[in-house]
Design a protein that fits this description.
single chain; about 60 residues; mainly alpha; CsbD family protein
Length: about 60
């Protein structure tokens, strides 16, 4: 899988987390909000790793 694909998947996962968090806010569901925030944090980490790997490989 290419680095660009990994970055795109991480961005999509971060968006999914944002949607979960906003649903949690709207529904006043703390578990859903926390799950959305956690998913966003994991996606940011994955995106940063993919970007660093892409930079290290010279692309």
């Amino acid at each position: 899988m290419g680095k660009s694909t990994e970055i795109a998947r991480a961005k999509a996962r971060r968006l999914k987390g944002m949607i979960k968090e906003s649903d949690g806010i709207a529904l006043e569901n703390e578990r859903l909000k926390a799950e959305g925030r956690r998913e966003q944090a994991e996606a940011r980490r994955e995106e940063a790793l993919a970007r660093a790997s892409r930079t290290a490989s010279g692309r």
